[in-house]
Specification:
Strand order of the largest sheet of chain A: 1-2
Oligomer: homodimer
Number of helices of chain A: 15
Number of domains of chain A: 1
Mean pLDDT of chain A: 95
Order of helices and strands of chain A: HHHEEHEEHHHHHHHHHHH
Structural class of chain A: mainly alpha
CATH class of chain A: Mainly Alpha
Helix content of chain A: 55-70%
Number of strands of chain A: 4
Chain lengths: 344, 344
Amino acid sequence: MGRQQAVEAAILDRREVVNEAIDEDLPPDHPEDLYEASRYLLKAGGKRLRPTMLLLVAEALADVAPLSADYRDFPAVDDSTVDVLAAAVSVEIIQSFTLIHDDIMDDDEMRRGVPAVHETYGLSTAILAGDTLYSKAFERMLATGATPERSVRALSRLARTCTQICEGQSLDIGYENNPEITTGEYLEMIELKTAVLYAASASIPAILLGYEDAVDPLYGYGLDVGRAFQIQDDLLDLTTPTEKLGKQRGSDLIEDKQTLVTVHARQQGVDVEGLVDAESTDDVTEADIEAAVATLEEVGSIDHARETAREYVRSGKGRLQVLPDSEARDLLAGIADYLIERDY
Amino acid sequence: MGRQQAVEAAILDRREVVNEAIDEDLPPDHPEDLYEASRYLLKAGGKRLRPTMLLLVAEALADVAPLSADYRDFPAVDDSTVDVLAAAVSVEIIQSFTLIHDDIMDDDEMRRGVPAVHETYGLSTAILAGDTLYSKAFERMLATGATPERSVRALSRLARTCTQICEGQSLDIGYENNPEITTGEYLEMIELKTAVLYAASASIPAILLGYEDAVDPLYGYGLDVGRAFQIQDDLLDLTTPTEKLGKQRGSDLIEDKQTLVTVHARQQGVDVEGLVDAESTDDVTEADIEAAVATLEEVGSIDHARETAREYVRSGKGRLQVLPDSEARDLLAGIADYLIERDY
């Protein structure tokens, strides 16, 4: 099995485990409608990259063979054990909550190839489903069985992360239609909106399991690969066919979202706002998007974004030196590469 | 000073303290817009009943003279101290978050006499402001300096409470236009939507300060007075003039919300849905509301709701026996009375 296949297999294996755990930890409940809406997007799919990262970090820290230890009863640095799967479910639930609310704010109709939660259940239930997942995520993070000291620290990290995600989403919305945005402002925005949840996912297992010295380097690893992930996500919005993307290709251009590509292109003198002259995804053709992407490629903006993402991945992988040399550590490096090599 | 004045003065005194603490604990921040929207409703007023209750319970448990101890450095049952004001701010922030999201769901335009957050800042920023307050509330509850064991328990209570509030709001929405709702279903709904946050406010100080035996009775006190509060709130919607209420009088009837009054009236054979024949607050006159209320009074539904609220207050006050006989305990009994005597 080649390195890339090994990474993809590791992701798939843990996705299975996480999917089962989500079903266990977030069962259907009363009121039926609310829990159906809360579970809907989680059941619709997703690669589970953040919980996978969390589980792999735990395995690397404990220096155990991948998938050999019981995630529900995982060995901490001392004699205690921790349910790291509850923590993994927690970060995935946070991710799902933010997607539900973001889709309302961005008026996105599709997500993961299915209608968005607010399209299916209406605005009120979608807001409430997000709110329910929010507190459920905290409930799960409180249920790991870690020592109270470590639980409090993990909770603090999670709460702070959620605040930052809101700040990032607020900046993202505020930056729409704003051609003054600098590279620095864009990078701050994606750090808050996206990277901090990867950073939380990578560092929380170190907090819960008691590996103090690893917490900060792992947070840095998560930040770096999270930034790379978002840059790649922005690139995929431009380059992946609509069917594969699960939503309209080029929607960021249509919505005048700021990305590293558009900020760079503007610096090259491109009239970014004029690239796609449509108000909504209904008014746009594939040819319009093709032409816009061709322009962005010509001025080097696509390549610039790709190179920046690669740089973050290099930096992030360097921080993994804090972990013992292990198969799990190799897989964490591989996931960093995967994040910018994936084509959907 | 009579008993009622003493209670009102106690509420006003603590409101001042809580207002200052909110300003300290939730200062303006970056992004400016997001924090302005997050602070807007908190700055618009509110009686701060939940944080006041939390502070008074702390004073009663510690058996200190009201307002004599430093809330930021409050004596626990052992030698440690706790910032109970951070906990008080936390429950008020939760309350504010739920109001912001509820106003979106109910399409309410006014709150506390000012336009609702989504009317002032738009839907996206209002959703995000609520989400930001959500995590800020957890951050504050993690900042009390209580022992990790107690912090974890307080956090668990807060997270569970938030989940229940969402469940209650979901039931409330689901019950609109549903004439089949029973008294039991209505009571479950208000317990979740409203009473659990009072219960959390009353019991969390006992958790944080280490008074184990008082936790459950205080939770019961909060549940009872919280139920009474919601029943009174529903009554005030019918009986308080629009100017004083800060929003359209009778809006629950217009929106076909279920209340103890409407459930009871229906049992008396009243055609509740036909009482106010308007689709929105714009189509309704004061005379329409007057006539509807007269009918509800005639069949005894208003009195029935009043009596039920009184019964809960009696029950709640009984649970205060767990506290030492003190001025703070008397004030907590007085607040229970105040909740159903207030006229706005």
